[in-house]
Amino acid sequence: MTDTATAPDDVDATRLKRSVSGRLLFLFILGDVLGAGVYALVGELAGEAGGMVWVPLLVALGMALLTAASYAELVTKYPRAGGSAVYAQRAFGRPVVSFLVGYCMLAAGVTSAAGLSLAFTGDYLGVFLDVPAVPAALVFLALVAALNARGIQESLRANVVMTTIELSGLVLVVVLGAVVLGRGDGDVSRLTELPEGTGVAAATLGGALVAFYSFVGFETSANLAEEVRDVRRTYPRALFGALLTAGVVYLLVGIVAPAVVAPADLQASSGPLLEVVRVAGGVPLEVFSVVALVAVANGALLTMIMASRLAYGMAEEGLLPSVFGRVLPGRRTPIVAIVVTTVVAMVLTTTGSLVDLASTVVLLLLLVFLSTNVAVLVLRRDRVEQPHFRAWTPLPVLAAATCVGLLTQQEAKHFLLAGVLLAVGLVLYAVARFASRRPSRS
């Protein structure tokens, strides 16, 4: 059944085009959740939880599904680009709060893209080409921007290919691990081992903090709300389906890896899944360099799609200058938002060091999730005519508590860096508001 409330967008050349099918949305979310981090995540988890890698992964999946329920309700209730910033504006009625929520997402997305560009041009690319990292990263970001500007369908079709490769690499790890165990090698008893001096509760909490980050990415799909066909029916299915698919893959990898390779060896390796391939034999290690490059490229593309659509949505809400809402004629993609977010990512890339900033970005995302989970409860008083997904009330409450719990595990220096970033954001907000109030010259 056609959504008559949004159908005019398909013929309005000033609006985004509704061209994203349920299948493309599912693959978008799956590709963004799987990301590039999983290829190193198992080693970090092994350091926290030993062979019980699968336990924090399972807990983290549950945490992600809690917040996903809030997004499913709000996206289907208010199917507009802008995501969490729009929800904060509707719930709290204070533009500055909405701006800061959106700004947190922008800071996270653009910085993540900058980090991914450096990751793309690092050791994995070095296997094939000997090029300076930063100049190559700038070229990489320019190519991502060009694909983003060409159109959402073209971008998501590229995502289909890259997600398939990325997922195939993880499935290959699971299959190779099963082969190793089938021939009598490996040790399944490691799956219940913990690091020396660490209890189950501590290992689960510490591991879940790391594992939760591997599920981050599903929230970016909220910024495609205006481009999804039949969003109220399609979005919840794609969101939960993608999270559950990623969770199953993660759990299988989390079971196979420590059973095949000792947890201490996984922890010591910067490419823990390569250790599984090495033990299994029969597959060139270079194959995984290609898979990792594809995974990184996919993550960067999806992140920049999110950032540009978020900037567009914030402009539509009056939180950024209206120029960010301009679309490219013919292609109807948010061209100004794409250019600006890409330039900012390029500037961050030239610093060449984003470790502490990346950790601060994770903190900022938790603040965004906390805002969204509270917003879904506040907005229950706002009735809409269209039917939409409704989360069971205890779910957003538990989700908000989860965000607070994870925030308490962050280091003080990251709170300090987040405070600095938010202060910069407030300055930008004040400048934007001043510019929007100036009388136009005819």
From TrEMBL:
<feature type="transmembrane region" description="Helical">
    <location>
        <begin position="124"/>
        <end position="147"/>
    </location>
</feature>
<feature type="transmembrane region" description="Helical">
    <location>
        <begin position="361"/>
        <end position="379"/>
    </location>
</feature>
<dbReference type="InterPro" id="IPR050367">
    <property type="entry name" value="APC_superfamily"/>
</dbReference>
<feature type="transmembrane region" description="Helical">
    <location>
        <begin position="391"/>
        <end position="408"/>
    </location>
</feature>
<feature type="transmembrane region" description="Helical">
    <location>
        <begin position="200"/>
        <end position="218"/>
    </location>
</feature>
<keyword id="KW-1003">Cell membrane</keyword>
<dbReference type="Pfam" id="PF13520">
    <property type="entry name" value="AA_permease_2"/>
</dbReference>
<feature type="transmembrane region" description="Helical">
    <location>
        <begin position="287"/>
        <end position="312"/>
    </location>
</feature>
<feature type="transmembrane region" description="Helical">
    <location>
        <begin position="24"/>
        <end position="42"/>
    </location>
</feature>
<dbReference type="InterPro" id="IPR002293">
    <property type="entry name" value="AA/rel_permease1"/>
</dbReference>
<keyword id="KW-0472">Membrane</keyword>
<feature type="transmembrane region" description="Helical">
    <location>
        <begin position="54"/>
        <end position="75"/>
    </location>
</feature>
<keyword id="KW-1133">Transmembrane helix</keyword>
<dbReference type="GO" id="GO:0022857">
    <property type="term" value="F:transmembrane transporter activity"/>
</dbReference>
<protein>
    <submittedName>
        <fullName>Amino acid permease</fullName>
    </submittedName>
</protein>
<feature type="transmembrane region" description="Helical">
    <location>
        <begin position="414"/>
        <end position="432"/>
    </location>
</feature>
<feature type="transmembrane region" description="Helical">
    <location>
        <begin position="239"/>
        <end position="261"/>
    </location>
</feature>
<keyword id="KW-0812">Transmembrane</keyword>
<feature type="transmembrane region" description="Helical">
    <location>
        <begin position="96"/>
        <end position="118"/>
    </location>
</feature>
<feature type="transmembrane region" description="Helical">
    <location>
        <begin position="333"/>
        <end position="355"/>
    </location>
</feature>
<dbReference type="GO" id="GO:0005886">
    <property type="term" value="C:plasma membrane"/>
</dbReference>
<feature type="transmembrane region" description="Helical">
    <location>
        <begin position="159"/>
        <end position="180"/>
    </location>
</feature>
